Amino acid sequence: MATALLTGAVVAFSILAIGKWTSSSFFYSNRVPLYDANTPVVISASLGTSTVGPNVDEESAYPLTSPTTSSPQKPVPISAPSYLVVVLNASTSFPEKILLEKNSFRAVSIASLTKLATAVVAQNILDQNAAITITSKILSTYPNDPAGFRRGEQFKTAQLLYPLLMVSSNDAAEALAQSYAPGRAWFIKAMNDWAYSIGAYNTFFADPSGLSPENISSPHDLAIILAWVATHRPDLLTITQTKVKYAGTHTWTSPTQLLNLTSYLGGKNGYLPEAGQTSVSLFHQNNHAYIVVVLGSKYRDQDILNLLQQI
Questions:
Q1: Pseudo-torsion of CA 128, 130, 136, 140, nearest 10°?
Q2: What counts of helices (H) and strands (E) characterise the chain?
Q3: Which of 78, 162, 226, 260 has the highest count of CB atoms within 10 angstroms of its CB?
Q4: Can you name the residues that pair with 105 across neighbouring β-strands?
Q5: 215 with 110: CB under 8 angstroms?
Q6: Nearest to residue 256, comparing CAs of 172, 162, 147, 166?
Q7: Exposure of 160 by Cβ count < 10 A (0-12 exposed, 13-18 middle, 19+ buried)?
Q8: Residue 212 DSSP class
């Protein structure tokens, strides 16, 4: 009889422990390595064409409005087919608890969210005070790039992080990658190696800008990436919170409408026809920090507001 009671108690405790672990430590489960340093993975994940024009990246085509009012019995609709809202642990600064999610482990095209990894790797492996010259090859990356670079101009590595993250300059991304002495391919490899090293196993980068639809990640991995940036590179988040930056004759103005929210602590938006509207952002409200990820959205800013309202 005593043995049976003891066995029952052990089983009950195990169930409770497993339940607690799976709810608060989801980032240690369901990981399927997707990136192999020796075998690049190529996955195209088209989510359909967004209603935003082909040259739109940071700016949403829809005005930032108040969250939609709804009752707990009738959640507001979210246009994004993949999303995730997690609480950031105050003591460890690591994603801790899922609040809302849909297809959060599905790896899809992420567009310019790529540039967060580009910025991290640029800080890791490049001399921040080195002068980078803007070449014709760099300028051919993207027509009418929002950075407005001119051939022959020079910028310090650290300066290029502003147009990279504020106005999502594809030319800035290429300037950083092409300036790496071993070569652009090795810069991209460093991006993949870094993502894998922090546990973003379902993430793969094919280029430094996000113009390639083969740059993929999941909401789960992007939460890990943003949490790492917030903890180890808070200066990068500060750049994403900057509205206007002056550099010589250049003025870079962030079009991110989320800057109008006092709860916004930084992040990155993106857009490609194959990716839809994408975003990974950090917010502080109700005395908690939250990471919100939306991928493949048609109404990105409204999706984010509606997700924040539900928590």
A1: -10
A2: 9, 11
A3: 226
A4: none
A5: yes
A6: 166
A7: buried
A8: S
Collect contacts of 202-206 with beta carbons under 8 A, ≥24 apart: 202/31, 202/32, 202/33, 202/34, 202/35, 202/105, 202/107, 203/34, 203/35, 203/107, 203/117, 204/34, 204/35, 204/40, 204/41, 204/42, 204/43, 204/107, 205/114, 205/117, 206/40, 206/42
Structure-block tokens of residue 223:
């939460």
What is the Cα–Cα distance from 175 to 177, expressed in whole angstroms? 6
| Closest to 268 measured CA to CA, from 252, 281, 282, 255 | 281
Query: What DSSP character marks residue 108?
Result: E
Cα 66 to the center of its chain, rounded Å: 23
In this structure, what token pair is assigned to residue 7?
């066995």
Helices (H), the chain: 2-24, 114-125, 136-139, 157-166, 170-178, 184-197, 219-232, 234-240, 300-310
Separation CA 163–CA 166 (nearest Å): 5
**How far is residue 197 from each of residues 89, 221, 251, measured CA to CA in Å?**
20, 12, 36
> Mind listing the pLDDT tens digit for each residue in 40-52?
333 333 333 233 3
Token couple for 49: 């064409």
Q: Is 223 exposed, middle or buried (0-12, 13-18, 19+ CB in 10 A)?
A: buried
**Residue 150 confidence (pLDDT):** 96
- Asked if pLDDT for residue 278 goes beyond 70, the answer is yes
